[in-house]
User: What shape does this take?
Amino acid sequence: MSTKTVAKPARAAFTCSECGWSAPKWVGRCGECQAWGTLVEVGAEATGPRTAATAPGAIAQPIADVDAQAAAYRPTGVGEFDRVLGGGIVPGAVVLLAGEPGVGKSTLLLDVAARAADGGARVLYVTGEESAAQVRLRAERIGALRPTLLLAAETDLGRVLGHIEAQQPDLLVVDSVQTIASAQVDGSAGGVSQVREVAAALIAVAKRTALPVVLVGHVTKDGAIAGPRVLEHLVDVVCQFEGDKHAQLRLVRAVKNRYGSVDEVGCFSLDELGIHGLSDPSGLFLSGGRDAVPGSCVTVTLDGRRPMPIEVQALLAKTSAPQPRRATHGLDSSRVAMTLAVLSARLGLDTSSFDTYVSTVGGSRAQEPAVDLAVALAVVSSRRDAALAEGLVAVGEIGLAGELRPVVGTTRRLSEARRLGFTRAIVPARSDLLGGPPAGMTLVEAPDLRAAVGAAVQANDRT
Assistant: This one.
């Protein structure tokens, strides 16, 4: 008696909307990113292999024979953006620029498109969020009207691909990837399937024609890039556009870069006339122009590879409340609380009856441990109502035992501080200083927090 093998029917597949992980059946929690309730049904899952071997389009060759010029950087004309990209944009590269609404992504890319057009490139700017007239008004306001800068207001993927074939641009900007949809895929624009299809189609065009593509992406309320995480894996470069809407400063960071380092940060200033690169932003986070006041200390942070002098301010106000208030801005609140605890336990500095406010100047963010010493000196200065000496900079991490720990890049930090006119520095003992301190700067190596506070007070007494 013969038996027949009955093929099992295809089962529905479920895909995580956050990371793209798939499962044959629905589960409450994603097995990859551990998110709850993110699996959605996307279609049938076939069993067994579906792809057969085919003849290759090109013969494999020795790696030394590959032409490296095909991946050479081409400057965009915006120096700070090129710094983040590693020197420029690579032909065929796909760059994803993400940021909050209204932070200035469209203004930056419109400026990049205009600068590229000035260099003789033919640029196609596809807008899916605004009308062509709105983009034209912005371009006129920031001085980005160019004859080789082409504008198309489209939300259909097929038409966008048609524009690319018709115009043959040297650079493509899509604002934004969440607004483009394909008629061949179910779901609304911005959904998992649509974003994956749009990104895959544009990436295929970019790789086939060596067309550099810049995509604008949205972010969620918690700061993550909207859409499936597979979008970040597909593109070559992911840049984060940061900034406070109420301030002029904007920062661009690379969180992924297949062609360069992710240790660079680009600084921009946004105003009504457009966006401008800041090649030397060191003085932005220093108040300057006034006499020394209690509760202020300057430190130098490393944002990527760029040293950033930042002024930390502290204010202690007497309070009768049983629970004094602790407020921070631009700093890690947990590290500030730890610093206050160390000051109380190791130096006997009582802050239990004071509301404590610690902030940075200019809307800067200082999250690294190297700012601990500056926070401690600013708090001590405010508590004693005594200003620290002018020209003093402090860099160091504080341990729970009150010891000072060396931080990376001390030489680079002090060199930048000396360039800005600082003449005295307090750093942890055993700091790795290549070539010694900069010329004209007095260095104090303190082993612990007590010695650092004493050195800061003595420096103030000599002024």
